């Protein structure tokens, strides 16, 4: 391209390029690029001019060339498909009439911060440095599937999808040279199988449509603090088999639609503190088959929709009981520690919400967590609740026997209850037989009558103080003796069953 073919605005960019100098066409620092459709020729640059500079632009010895442009209206499509560009590209606060086409391109660095674009196609893009789209407003889909970025991807403060406060961008997206009407049916942000050498920084991201991170590999962290993901009735965040090096931070995240992290690997923290997850009538959070260091939902709003944590492995689980929804799927969920510290009774309600019904494994996991914390009393409470829950699945006759064990010795977890029953029966029998001595069977051979030891002989089948065999009650005291013998046998059997169960747990 000859310099004589350039407009004055384009000539400024052309001459600054070999020196690596910046060209700022903004009239003021607060110029809104959403209004760029009305900018005149003094701020208009053709995309073909930028392409010519990047592919075969002028150079000057001893200088590092680079494209640095701010506040320009870029008309046409910047097409760098499969191209290799050795110069950094910085297009800040610009207004694009057509989305750049960067599929398969190899770039040193790409900065589009605070710019307004109808869409962006950059699948299989390779960037040696950073990809910066902070503060961008993009009405159509952002396609970055398969991209490889050696540095970080910055999307903090970006607004993607249809948004109400940028009518000029929406108009541009339906212009004849913009993305077609089907573009908005695609994910608003597609990052499937990206490989990022540092972080994905997307704090404050606003996305109307789906964010896809399936199979992505991020060496550092993923930041979604204060993000708003809006895709009601559908999946707002689709991040199956996502792998991050450290954390996925999403504090104060607002997700209207499903958050799907199935199969993700997050070695440190999945931090959803203060988050609001909402997908009424469907799953709000799916994090099944995940491996997570610590899962935090501290002070999060009550989740609207189901939660699926089946088969996941978590070292620490921080979720308050009031945060859980009415429907959960926790079959196979394993965890070592629970916070905050709460009585077992407050956590047991969660196990009743399992969609599959009674899950012995869930009770065992909760028991193990309390034992890890050194709270054996809470662990026993969970085990007792497990047996009571199991009892509801048994036939009627088995439920009756279970009720009896529960009433007498609490299935072996309440041994003092058995002692109380025995003491009550012992006092009752001793008092009754003290007032009405049974007659001796052989008066000349019978020992002195002792009402206490006589009652013990009746109650405990394994003892023999010689009282029961020497005396025979009559009338109502005979019926009392029968009652003591039967109840003694029942108590002895249930106590033995409880002791056996306790030993087997050890």
How would you describe this structure to a colleague?
There is one protein chain. This protein has 506 residues and is of the alpha/beta class. The chain is 27% helix and 25% strand. It has 10 helices and 37 strands. The strands form 5 sheets. A 13-stranded parallel beta sheet has the order 1-3-5-8-12-16-20-24-27-29-31-33-35. Strands 9, 10, 13, 14, 17, 18, 21, 22, 25, 28, 30, 32 and 34 form a 13-stranded parallel beta sheet that branches. α5 (360-372) runs antiparallel to α6, α7 (396-409) crosses α10 and α8 packs antiparallel against α10 (476-505). The longest helix has 30 residues, at 476-505.
List descriptors.
single chain, 506 residues, alpha/beta, 13-stranded parallel β-sheet, rod-shaped
Write the SSE topology.
Elements: H1 8-16, E1 22-24, E2 44-46, H2 47-56, E3 67-70, E4 73-75, E5 89-92, E6 95-96, E7 106-107, E8 110-111, E9 116-117, E10 120-121, E11 126-127, E12 131-132, E13 137-138, E14 142-143, E15 148-149, E16 153-154, E17 159-160, H3 167-173, E18 189-190, E19 195-196, E20 200-201, E21 206-208, E22 211-212, E23 217-218, E24 222-223, E25 228-238, E26 243-244, E27 248-249, E28 254-260, E29 265-271, E30 276-286, E31 291-296, E32 304-308, E33 313-318, E34 328-329, E35 334-339, H4 344-351, H5 360-372, H6 376-391, H7 396-409, H8 415-435, E36 439-440, H9 451-459, E37 471-472, H10 476-505
Parallel strand pairs: 1-3, 2-4, 3-5, 4-6, 5-8, 7-11, 8-12, 9-13, 10-14, 11-15, 12-16, 13-17, 14-18, 15-19, 16-20, 17-21, 18-22, 19-23, 20-24, 21-25, 22-25, 23-26, 24-27, 25-28, 27-29, 28-30, 29-31, 30-32, 31-33, 32-34, 33-35
Antiparallel strand pairs: 36-37
Helix pairs in contact: 4-5, 5-6, 7-10, 8-9, 8-10
């Amino acid at each position: 391209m000859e310099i004589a073919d350039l407009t004055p605005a384009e000539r400024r960019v052309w001459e600054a390029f070999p020196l690596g100098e910046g060209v700022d066409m903004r009239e003021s620092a607060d110029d809104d690029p959403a209004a760029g459709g009305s900018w005149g020729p003094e701020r208009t640059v053709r995309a073909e001019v930028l392409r010519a500079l990047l592919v075969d632009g002028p150079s000057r010895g001893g200088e590092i060339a680079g494209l640095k442009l701010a506040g320009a209206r870029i008309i046409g499509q910047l097409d760098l498909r499969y191209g290799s560009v050795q110069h950094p590209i910085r297009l800040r606060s610009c207004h694009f009439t057509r989305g750049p086409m960067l599929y398969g391109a190899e770039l040193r660095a790409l900065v589009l911060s605070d710019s307004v674009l109808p869409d962006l196609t950059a699948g299989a893009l390779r960037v040696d440095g950073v990809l910066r789209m902070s503060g961008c407003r993009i009405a159509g889909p952002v396609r970055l599937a398969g991209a490889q970025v050696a540095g970080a991807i910055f999307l903090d403060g970006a607004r993607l999808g249809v948004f109400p406060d940028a009518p000029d961008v929406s108009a541009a997206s339906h212009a004849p040279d913009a993305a077609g009407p089907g573009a908005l049916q695609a994910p608003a942000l597609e990052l499937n199988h990206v490989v990022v050498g540092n972080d994905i920084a997307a704090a404050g991201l606003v996305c109307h449509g789906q964010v896809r991170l399936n199979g992505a590999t991020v060496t550092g962290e993923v930041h979604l603090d204060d993000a708003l993901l809006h895709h009601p009735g559908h999946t707002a965040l689709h991040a199956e088999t996502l792998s991050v090096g450290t954390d996925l931070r999403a504090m104060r995240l607002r997700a209207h639609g499903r958050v799907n992290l199935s199969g993700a690997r997050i070695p440190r923290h999945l931090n959803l503190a203060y988050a609001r997850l909402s997908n009424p009538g469907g799953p709000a959070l799916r994090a099944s088959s995940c491996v997570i260091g610590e899962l935090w939902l501290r002070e999060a709003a009550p989740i609207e929709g189901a939660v699926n944590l089946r088969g996941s492995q978590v070292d620490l689980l921080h979720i308050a009981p009031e945060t859980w929804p009415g429907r959960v799927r926790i079959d196979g969920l394993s965890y070592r520690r629970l916070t905050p510290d709460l009585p077992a009774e407050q956590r047991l309600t969660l196990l009743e919400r399992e969609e599959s019904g009674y899950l012995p494994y869930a009770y065992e996991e909760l028991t193990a967590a309390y034992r890890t914390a050194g709270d054996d009393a809470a662990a026993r409470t969970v085990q007792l609740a497990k047996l009571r829950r199991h009892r509801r699945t048994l036939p009627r006759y088995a439920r009756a026997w279970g009720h009896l064990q529960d009433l007498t010795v609490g299935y072996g977890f309440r041994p003092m209850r058995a002692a109380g029953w025995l003491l009550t029966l012992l006092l009752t029998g001793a008092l009754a037989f003290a007032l009405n001595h049974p007659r001796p069977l052989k008066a000349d051979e019978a020992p002195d009558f002792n009402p206490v030891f006589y009652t013990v002989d009746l109650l405990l089948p394994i003892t023999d103080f010689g009282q029961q065999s020497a005396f025979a009650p009559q009338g109502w005291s005979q019926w009392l003796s029968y009652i003591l013998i039967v109840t003694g046998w029942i108590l002895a059997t249930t106590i033995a069953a409880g002791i056996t169960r306790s030993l087997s747990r050890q």
